[in-house]
Amino acid sequence: MKRALGVWLVCWGCAAPGPERRPLLLADRTDAAPAALEAQLLAPYLARHPDLDLVRRSSAALGDEYDRGLLLSLAHDDPPDAFLLDDEQFPRVADRGVALDLTPYLPRVGVTPSRFDPTVLALFRRGTDVYALPRGYTPVVVAYNQDLFDRAGIPYPTDDWAWDDFMRVAHQLTRATHGAGAINQWGSALDRRPTLFLPWIWAGGGDVLCADGRRATGCLDSRATIEALRWYTAWVAPGGIAPRITDGRAAPGAAVRLFNAGRLALLTTGHWAVPELRAAVMAGRLRVGFVAIPHRAGAAPATVLYASGYAVRAATARRKAAVELAAELSDSAAGLARGQAGLELPAVTQAAAELAAADPLGWEAAFLRAAAHGRPSWAARVAAWREVEGRLTDLIDRLVLTDADPSRAAQSAARELDRVLGATR
Asked: Using the 8-state DSSP alphabet, how is residue 20 labeled?
């Protein structure tokens, strides 16, 4: 058969080719990596399988759309054999039994699970079963504008900083740079999305759900969480360190634009920011460092980890080829190449160490230090997380927009989440 590699920007439902010529189908996202890089990473695999037809079916959908599209494609009459799986999709895929347990096949393709960061691999485990091989990940960290720190004569933050240090620095860097006018430079920015505010709650000793992920009462409304919510939402209070949110619809990119314009000192972000910030640094527009999320005095340092990996459809007739493909795309060489492109930290521990050692900016080492205190995201453990996430965003809006009492608002939200999670009827 003629070898072919196609990059299709198509909808998830496509007519199936004849069974005698059905290619091996790989499904992923167009934003996951540049097409040229992925083609390069697939080249060694194709060289070892010269008679294999491989089609990369890449969707432009993101978030909920990609999630729905992936599940639809797996139930379609032309499903992918291997597919890129984000940690937030993992519970739904695992619960539906559509992903293959890769554990018994790993020795056959030369994969030792111990080569992966154990916390990242755990995002795709159920007990001893492994349903995806992680390709890359990120902790949530704080990016800081070195130029603003230098102009104010403030030392750069270090990984052992605490909330008091953060707030002191952020207040010093919140100012009107043109005299007595309106503030036009901010210490930081509040993000309403749990993706980015959750590590601040953890670093304050609180949490939004309890350990089993089945209830919120007793955790979201705990003293530690309420105090963390009170502290976090005070960022946008009058005299605070962040621009106020006036209508609950602050664009997610607003803080990034302020940071890129040199008007925001401290930005909560992840490795996804590296390509754009690296370009700005190389062009001389910014000087940037990364540091761990600060923690409340008396609480342990913490952040959240987000990851993606390659899974294999349980019912595929091309099991051997699909497992080998997943192994190829998650190995150290592929991880290092994506890391060098700034896309993510490699999930293979040795590749991540090599990436950090070769990084002249020191950014990758900062991400690795932060990741040492990382925890799996709730999204990787709770199938109803999207609904939970929406209720948590609503909670932040209530605290910011209506000045609701954090204790009462958290108690009310906890009861709502218990109903969502099925803890109460």
From this structure: G
